[in-house]
Design goal:
By secondary structure, the chain is an all-alpha fold. 75% of the residues lie in helices and 2% in strands. It has five helices and two strands, in the order H-H-H-H-H-E-E. It has a two-stranded antiparallel ribbon. A hairpin with a 5-residue loop joins strand 1 and strand 2. The N and C termini lie far apart (91 Å). About 3% of the residues have low confidence.
Amino acid sequence: MPAGLPPISYASVIVGFTSFAFTFFTFLRVFWESIQTIWYAPKEIRQLLYNLRTELCGERAYFKNAIEQAKSKSRHSTRDTPEIAPLSILNDSIESMMRDFQQMEAPFLNDADKADDLDVEKSGKMSLRGNYGRMNLQRRYLWLHTKPDFMDLANQVTRIQARRIAYETSDTLTCIRQVEKRIEDLDEKIHAMEEHFLGEVLEDGKVHVERRYPKE
């Protein structure tokens, strides 16, 4: 240790080199991930964008059918009814995601498919088909910057799917409870009819019925 150099200076030098090394290796990791994203852009675009398009179309079709069924069962077919409101909210979210997806996807499509998407935006529908253009350097660089946005959109779709599954589960449980209640009411009516037509009045005033299936 050189004379006159306090130990705190050595600690500062060590901390400085450690911070530099951490920053340098972080830069290398980010740089390497960027190179991989650009290199595998054609494969990632076709897989991620096609899956997103398929999931969005599937969710849109589900909510459309679910809303129509809810309207057919409900006396009031407005969006504010308890049966329709949750579905309408989720459906609006899916439609908003579809519009965002179309805008984000447009630079990667062929010119003919871009024109089709303009018609799709007016009709509110989206085809499962997505023909992507030749992957040049410009599109690879664009994918490097837009991939996080597509990943965020995919996470939003996953959350919508989770809420849809929760709604389906709740609706199924409600239907099961209603069926159980109807079965219990029917069972009570059957036993009441048995007591009325087959019952034998005992000395204590109670009605005794010989049943094939005893009442629980």
